[in-house]
Amino acid sequence: MLSVDPSDRSKQAVRFGDGGTMRQARSVTLGLLVLTLAVAARDSSSATASPNAPRMLVGVHQDAVAHSYDHARAAIRAARDRLNVQVSRSTLRWNLVERSRGEFEWSHADLVVAELEAAGIEPLFALIGSPTWANGVDAGVPNSEFYVPVEQASFNRWLTGFTTFAREAARRYREVSLWEVWNEPNEHFFWLPRPNSSRYAQVYRAVSNAIHTENPKARVAVGGLSGIAAGCCISGLDFTRRLIASGIEMDAVALHPYPSNGHPPDVHVQWEDNFDDIGKVRQLLDASGLRQVEVWVTEWGWSSGSGPRGAERQATYTTRSLEMLRDQFSYVSVAIIFLDADRPGYDHGLLTASFEPKPAGLAFLDFQRSRLAATPLKAPARKLATPNATKPFLLVVGGFWLTAKSGRVGKPFGATMRVIRSDTGKPLADGVLVARATVQGRRLELVRKGAYRGTLEARWLLPAWAKDKTISGSITVRYGSATVTKRFGAHVR
């Protein structure tokens, strides 16, 4: 995913999907470590809440779009059933969506958004990444997707492309209201070759404007700032100070308050990063007359390490940090812990790799249950669109994708279609889905079919006898008297 490993600051690892690479070692020499309870530092973190800040949404970092659909689907359901999360954070990567200029591939993100909606979980997308054609960096260069052009003309072209990508994403996913622009842009792990607050301010302004053009109600955060007090390059606090000086209008500032060396959240270590650095950013915003700017915490957490003591420590620190967010930092409107479930090389999950609760997961669930039971959320009544006989309309295919250009024997083969009502311009809220696929006249077994507000999916299992033959199929949605059909063909290998 997207953070430093808080359990060992001398071995900094990029977490991005399952293909993380080791960050450069960073050694810190301190003459004297002064430990004080964070409660003693409350004077620096007791700023008042933004008057317009909504109720805190609590969730997990999943990066569901970076995983296979089957894994993402299982992870999302586990987050709902085992953790009672309200929001799920994922990266939406330009370099994967628009590998070739002007050719967008949204199918996987479509399915993830549909699954989150079906689970009642709000998506948060962090926009990041650069295709090779946009930044001019060869794909063989390590972390090539994190390079942002330095030369002005190249940067201007890059920014136009990134802004277009953001606008297309916001237009496609109008149901998504939470966005982050990049990730940890104040450190040189994700903004290469070196962080630049002036350039980032230009990026945030352009992307935020593009998103708000498509969705005026969206909230767009400065990408999660790490190293708030003691960053390697530009501290998160100084980076925020520079953004304020640039004059950009911010909806929110997202933070990654990992404590150095994984120390407890309620312990303050002088000259290091601490969980309670959250308060310093709120104070800075308030002192600058920006009380309306929200504070989000979009990554924090601890490793469970090896053995029961590590797992219990993770649970204890998780509970303490959640209680601090609730009681001490009540102005935080979005709180997303890293990570939902363990994966190879990362044991920061609240769940095991097989989605069984760890002690930290049980502690998280207890917190959510008690918090939401005390002040239950009122879910808005969902109004399904209904046919209007006096106002004829058409159903329009807003996008159509196959899971692959050719199916593979023994694997599910899928078709996905997005449907829009011509009279409202909005994705369809309900309808009847009919899906058929045949190979030489023999009907394939339909293993999944679903309709989620305009994202319609059907999946078939490809038997051995279909190898080297052609699939013919169609996916149709009917709503009232309106019908739209998309036909397709694909080869089986």
Descriptors:
493 residues, alpha/beta, disordered N terminus, TIM Barrel, Immunoglobulin-like, five-stranded mixed β-sheet, 19 strands, eight-stranded parallel beta barrel
Number of helices: 10
The low-confidence parts are 1-46, 49-54, 376-390
Strand count = 19
> In this structure, how is the largest beta sheet organized?
8 strands, parallel, barrel
Q: What oligomeric assembly is this protein in? A: single chain
CATH architecture of the largest domain: Alpha-Beta Barrel
- The percentage helix is 25-40%
CATH class of the largest domain: Alpha Beta
Overall number of domains: 2
**What is the CA-based Rg, rounded?**
23 Å
- The CATH superfamily of the largest domain turns out to be Glycosidases
Which fold name is given in CATH as the topology of the largest domain? TIM Barrel
Distance between the termini: 33 Å
Briefly say what this structure is.
With 493 residues, the chain is of the alpha/beta class. It has helices at 69-83, 94-97, 107-119, 132-135, 152-172, 197-214, 236-246, 278-287, 308-327, 359-374; strands at residues 35-37, 57-61, 87-93, 122-128, 178-181, 219-225, 252-255, 267-269, 294-297, 332-337, 395-402, 406-407, 412-421, 432-439, 442-443, 445-452, 455-461, 470-479, 482-492. The chain folds into 2 domains: 35-374, TIM Barrel (Alpha-Beta Barrel), CATH 3.20.20.80; 395-492, Immunoglobulin-like.
